[in-house]
């Protein structure tokens, strides 16, 4: 087995130790910890529904954008097409999503929440609101608004609430 060449790392000046930043100053670490906390809170609040966070996001996107195709859905929720397809297939097997053939292009399928999926998304509203509240609980109202503004900026989300709707198949 061939070893990968070692990365060339500049040495610290003679007699000095390299500066290793504290984890408190690493945004990647802090974002990962915040995500772990958010996922744990969601898991506790939404446990009774048996729906993962990603499944919930996809179902909410379909509630707001019925009749999109899988590529548009993947773009809406910022997931790759393979992951989106896998999650949609699981939701379809559970009877929460339907994928009828597109009448304008028999090669494609359109995505909709099934009646049970719509009912589940609606039933989850209170649990999801509690989740969001608990995630932001340590922050003041102005800090919450600022955090959300900065997160949107970091991921390149437009400042306005409205994203253009995805292209639907003709």
Explain the overall architecture.
There is one protein chain. Strand 2 (101-102) and strand 3 form a beta hairpin. The radius of gyration is 21 Å and the shape is extended. It starts with 26 loop residues before the first helix and ends in a 16-residue tail after the last helix. Helix content is 51%, strand content 6%. It is mostly helical and 170 residues long. The strands form 2 sheets. It has a two-stranded antiparallel sheet with strand order 1-4. A two-stranded antiparallel ribbon has the order 2-3.
Largest sheet properties: 2 strands, antiparallel
Q: How many angstroms separate the termini?
A: 53 Å
CATH architecture type of the largest domain: Orthogonal Bundle
Q: Work out the count of structural domains.
A: 2
Q: How many strands?
A: 4
By helix and strand content, what is the structural category? mainly alpha
Number of helices: 7
What do we call the CATH homologous superfamily of the largest domain?
Answer: Winged helix-like DNA-binding domain superfamily/Winged helix DNA-binding domain
* Low-confidence spans: 164-170
Helix content: 40-55%
CATH class of the largest domain: Mainly Alpha
Q: What oligomeric state do the depicted chains represent?
A: single chain
CATH overall fold name of the largest domain: Arc Repressor Mutant, subunit A
Mean pLDDT value:
88
Shape: extended
Percent in strands: 5-15%
